[in-house]
Amino acid sequence: xxxxxxxxxxxxxxxxxxxxxxxxxxxxxxxxxxxxxxxxxxxxxxxxxxxxxxxxxxxxxxxxxxxxxxxxxxxxxxxxxxxxxxxxxxxxxxxxxxxxxxxxxxxxxxxxxxxxxxxxxxxxxxxxxxxxxxxxxxxxxxxxxxxxxxxxxxxxxxxxxxxxxxxxxxxxxxxxxxxxxxxxxxxxxxxxxxxxxxxxxxxxxxxxxxxxxxxxxxxxxxxxxxxxxxxxxxxxxxxxxxxxxxxxxxxxxxxxxxxxxxxxxxxxxxxxxxxxxxxxxxxxxxxxxxxxxxxxxxxxxxxxxxxxxxxxxxxxxxxxxxxxxxxxx
Length: 329
Known about the structure:
- By secondary structure, the protein is an all-alpha fold.
- It contains eleven helices and no strands.
- The chain is globular.
- The N and C termini lie far apart (59 Å).
């Protein structure tokens, strides 16, 4: 190659670089270190999400066992719950909500929920929803009648009622429904499920059908099962495809995801407000029961009802807040 050719090549390269700089475009790509940092941050975020998704079922299982040990296996726990139970109405006739709890009722609810998932072509979520209902209710019966026992410290009857089958049925169905609904409806359904389940838990305590530990244990069991079942599930997102109108579809899809995310944040805040309000009401009731009107069974019952509502709303709040994997399923 002649010196004239080399010189011409050098001048051409210099001119190209000058033209690129003048046009405001960087002549080189991002440095490898920046790409590596972005990948490392992504891996750290994914690991944190996985750790949180594993922590919730473990924590819920721990709560279930702790409630059983403290409330059922101790004389103090039984004495406290029996005081609230003494103020209950002991209503024998079930309300409409409580009458719905039966094996045929669970079968109809499961079929309806599975139908929604299959219509949306979400077979993985259909299986997950069925597992939440089947495993939660089966485990409740096994724990109540086979594994757990109730010592006769206070009550003359040693019949075990921990955990509550009615509460398990309602919470498992409501959470299973959340797994299969579109994101736009899921946020509103979580609030509705929390409200309905809270009405059920108040009735169970006020009618004398169950103690506080029974319903809190049921909620903890369903939350443990549902969050464990959710581990392999990814985010329920549709990816816009197509040509020609692809940009417009993508824009609408992005707008829909933004609206769903906003609804989700609002629902979490509403549930959090309900959780805090229920805890505050429980604290006020217990202070009144043990300080102002010492030994008041009615105020004790009211306090246990507020604690049960807080546990129920808190379970829906955690389930709504728990992040999904990024991969769609």
